[in-house]
Specification:
Length: 449
């Protein structure tokens, strides 16, 4: 079976993390957090680094299918393994719906008369078909998509820095900068920063792919830690600088949650065909994140099926080792979810984003708690497997746990996130009930035989 090398791993990780959380949702974050938005993205990046270090340690010590889901099941039992696995899959599907909606929004810049749901369905079908490739074929497709969005962020940061140095680009000059308005309202944005934490952390929650992809990576103990450092530092720096320059260059009254601030600023820079060019780049960025999310979600569904916690058809693999049944099921749910844009065209992005963010952060809390107990388990049973150690154990595990808890509790500060929070809680309850029903059903079947 094909395996990722270091470059493939970096590409898939960048592809899964960088997406609509920065390219589209950044306008929502800035509207809420104001001048605190760059600090919020920097803070979110630090939390992401903590989570990733926990995932790497556990996955290298025990590289099993399902990664952190399997580790949580070892520590907290089958119930929590079932819940965390299905939450990750559900969060991934909701994340895919938000990404496909973002892509459809980008397409409608060119075709404003085409319904949002039509664009969403076409994109969902296309990206599902792409994921029938093996990991080598998938990483080749992802390479071009991931490079495009990293280069876009680098170009944006470079041009913005040039303007700050006093070199005008288009209509943007040094006089255009918004430093004065930023300095006038730093304290007003602190409650907004708390209210935006769910959106902020959602922008980084694609890190779950690191544990899943590590299982399919050559020599993970040597490849994964340095590759992950490249990914996490790159994403954090690019996110923080990009948002700083957005609030520095784009007047607050021009922010529009339905239009990417990058499109607006590149238009102000008066780059030829800037709006169309950047919109195309953002479309490829969203497609990249969508592509990686289908990969990670289908692998989790495959792991659940292997544990008899999902329909057994999801275990089916082709001769190249691709779990095509799990890919097809995830794609079908994505197609169904894309139809939500027919009923909620104005709110679908924020609703699915916040619901996905809620479930993803529950997963992050689980990873933090699992890491605390899993380190003890490894040291007691097979200390030689502990080839990579997350720093500042055990304090970092619980610091990260409570930071995420605060982020969840701050959700009501941004009312548009509440429907996502409620739906996330309902999904968590539904998955828990489903486990007990399935367990009861299975136990009755055993008694009959």
């Amino acid at each position: 079976m094909a395996a990722f090398n270091k470059t493939d791993f970096i590409v898939m990780a960048l592809g899964n993390i960088i997406g609509s959380g920065i390219f589209l949702a950044s306008s929502l974050v800035i509207s809420t957090a104001g001048a605190w938005a760059p600090f919020a993205y920097l803070f979110g990046g630090l939390v992401m680094m903590m989570e990733v270090s926990f995932i790497i340690e556990m996955t290298i010590a025990n590289p099993v299918s399902g990664s952190f889901k399997a580790h949580a099941q070892e520590v907290f039992g089958e119930w929590w393994g079932f819940v965390i696995g299905w939450m990750f899959w559900t969060s991934g599907v909701l994340g895919m719906i938000s990404e496909v909606t973002a892509c459809a929004i980008f397409i409608r810049l060119w075709f404003p008369t085409v319904p949002l749901w039509t664009c969403s369905l076409i994109l969902a079908l296309g990206i599902t078909l792409i994921n029938f490739n093996d990991v080598k074929g998938l990483s080749k497709i992802e390479l071009g998509l991931a490079i495009t969005k990293v280069v876009t962020l680098l170009a944006f940061v470079s041009m913005s820095f040039t303007i700050i140095l006093g070199i005008p680009i288009g209509d943007a000059t040094k006089d255009f900068l918004q430093f004065q308005s930023l300095l006038q309202s730093p304290l007003e944005g602190f409650p907004g920063m708390l209210g935006s934490l769910l959106l902020i952390l959602f922008a980084y929650t694609g890190t779950g792919i690191i544990g899943i992809a590590a299982v399919e990576t050559e020599k993970p103990e040597k490849t994964v830690p340095p590759a992950t450092r490249i990914v996490t530092f790159t994403v954090t720096i690019l996110y923080t600088l990009s948002v700083f320059f957005i609030i520095t260059l784009l007047p607050r009254h021009l922010l529009d949650g339905t239009v990417s601030p990058f499109v607006q600023l590149f238009t102000i820079f008066k780059i030829p065909y800037a709006g169309d060019l950047v919109n195309f780049i953002l479309l490829t960025a969203g497609m990249s994140a969508l592509n990686s999310q289908i990969y990670s979600s289908s692998r989790m569904l495959f792991s659940l099926a292997k544990e008899k916690q999902a329909p057994q058809i999801a275990k089916y693999q082709n001769t190249k080792g691709v779990p095509i049944a799990a890919v097809a099921i995830s794609g079908l749910i994505l197609l169904s979810g894309a139809m939500l844009s027919y009923y909620l065209p104005e709110k679908i992005f924020i609703y699915t984003l916040s619901a996905s963010g809620f479930l993803a952060l529950i997963n992050w809390m689980s990873v933090s708690a699992t890491h605390f107990y899993y380190r003890k388990k490894i040291l007691a049973e097979n200390p030689n497997n502990l080839k990579y150690k997350s720093p500042f154990y055990p304090y970092l595990s619980w610091i990260c746990f409570f930071i995420i808890l605060i982020a969840l509790l701050s959700t009501p500060l941004y009312p548009d996130q509440l429907p996502g929070l409620y739906s996330g809680l309902l999904l968590l309850l539904f998955i828990s009930i489903a486990y007990f029903i399935c367990n009861l059903w299975r136990s009755k079947g055993i008694k009959k035989t």
